[in-house]
Amino acid sequence: MSTPAGFPEAPPAVPATPLKELDVIVAKLVSRKAAFAALSVPERLVLLDAIIDRLFENQDAWAALESRAKGAWPDSLGYGEVYMSGPVPTSRHLRMLKLALADVRDFGAPRADKRAMSVREDGRLVVNVMPYDLWDRAAFLGYSADVWMEPGVTKETLKANQAEAYRKPNLVGKLSLVLGAGNQSSIPMTDALHKLFVDNSVVLIKMNPVNEYLGPVFRKIFAPLVDQGFLEVVYGGAEQGAYLCNHADVDDIHITGSDQTHDAIVWGPREGREDRKKRGERACTKPISSELGNVTPIVIVPGEWSDSDIAFHAESVAAMVSNNASFNCIAGKLLVTPKDWKQRDAFMTALRQALRDTPPKKAYYPGARDRWQKFIDGHTQAETLGKDGPDVVPWTLIPNLDAVNKDDPCFRVEPFCGVLHEVALPGDTAVDFLPRAVKFCNDTVWGTLAAHVIIHPSTRKDPASEAAFQHALDDLRYGTIAVNQWAGLGFGLMNTTWGAHPGHTLEDIQSGIGSVHNTFLFDKAQKSVVWAPFRPLMKPVWFHTHRGTPKLAAPLVRYSARPSVLRLLKILPHAMG
């Protein structure tokens, strides 16, 4: 069946878990937390393998349900997108965890010491983590990723700053509450895997009401854990969430969501919240880690671009905006352009066309239309470029913002809908422009989760421009920096870190505290930098013009978890786009 707007009918709602039943579930998990903490690494590897088997059995059901909810018909580009953001990164996470734990078993920690390492001018250690192996080199042609350590970590001390939960095991165990995100379905899965196999906790996942329909599928995938009392899935809204956050037997909390939800948990009701913050009077005193979004900047570095370069990166920016109907914490939100770049007008013209050409997507996330309207009402220069209609937010550009007006909501509020802002800063060279762009992103733009820098290789050949670029990488205070690509890949790689740049406090949380994924088990990672060719050989799978995505997605799940030559041959014909 379909809706009047032509989208599939969404899955039915799942009843909230009664509070008394929550007590029973929590008690069962508590009774098993010491048993989980005592599991040997070989026993954990057996569990991971069993979960992979269940993922293969349930991946199609997962994708079918989520596609219905997000308005994508089977075999459509949207169906492939759902697969790429749900089962595929979850599958890769499982493989990366297996590799990490095998190294813990054999060497005490993942073998970062066998990776390429470098040291920045200021002494920060950088470890290359991707490509991990030949399978990665085949699947990610030309792509790579590094993790930067916090100051003070050296090559000699790196291993002593890995796998703390395995070096110093807590045999009493603990129970972690994972408050699942409603936008990307891999988030509750991978957050739970991180808490289990990196933090050594049993886990209770409370599904977000937006994607609660996936809870029964997740429970089937996690059956090897559920059957032993190491994990459970529950449902409900604010009432269930508040009850569990304040439950005496929950040891810590991890949330992926909004800063407002985080502050409601930590500091209590909105009324009087700021006063409680000033007094340090927390409503919930449990340890809490979080990933809370960001007004994601895209810094365009001036250079000599061809017409095809402009067209490619205009489509790339449009894809950063439109993926998942723009309900991503790292959707492209703020284009930072060089005002004096002679090709700025050509790029903005190409971007407008790329947004017009991008098909509309169902605005499935609650409140999207109201959020969009607030940005439109507050900015007379807003341009509606995409198609409008029932259950849709049209792709919208708000150009020529005033950089001096630091209180503009476009700089301070994450829209969480299909809006892209643009601000132009002075400079016609990398040397002039990049320091201004970095200062603006660090000091004016809200959040520190992820940022993008797009720079032409010919620009980097100039020594002064390359120095300016390297200083920009040093100085940008973001947990992930994506060079010439979308930061979504940084989320999906799993052996990189994912979370805000260190330094936030509970009083000023911004993009959150802590990180997840991080399958090298680094204890003191600062940020990840993900690299791509300026013009990759294969079209990125998140482009809406990539016609192979629906057929690529399902076999990619199996390749990501258990790569082989045969599985590589199955994905390559569809990977070219």
Topology:
Elements: H1 19-37, H2 41-69, H3 77-85, H4 87-107, E1 117-119, E2 125-130, H5 134-139, E3 144-149, H6 164-167, E4 175-179, H7 186-197, E5 202-206, H8 215-221, H9 223-226, E6 231-234, H10 238-245, E7 252-256, H11 259-267, H12 273-279, E8 288-291, E9 296-300, H13 307-322, E10 332-338, H14 344-357, H15 368-377, E11 383-384, E12 396-401, H16 409-412, E13 419-425, H17 430-443, E14 450-454, H18 457-460, H19 463-475, E15 480-483, H20 488-493, E16 497-499, E17 515-517, E18 525-531, H21 549-561, H22 565-575
Helix pairs in contact: 2-3, 2-4, 2-8, 2-21, 3-4, 3-21, 4-7, 4-21, 13-14, 17-19, 21-22
Protein model, in words:
- 42% of the residues lie in helices and 15% in strands.
- By secondary structure, the chain is of the alpha/beta class.
- Among the domains are: 19-110 and 166-257, 3-Layer(aba) Sandwich (Aldehyde Dehydrogenase, Chain A, domain 1); 296-483, Aldehyde Dehydrogenase, Chain A, domain 2, CATH 3.40.309.10.
- The strands form three sheets. Strands 1-2-3-18-15-14-9-10-13-12-11 form an eleven-stranded mixed beta sheet. A five-stranded parallel beta sheet has the order 6-5-4-7-8, with helices on both faces.
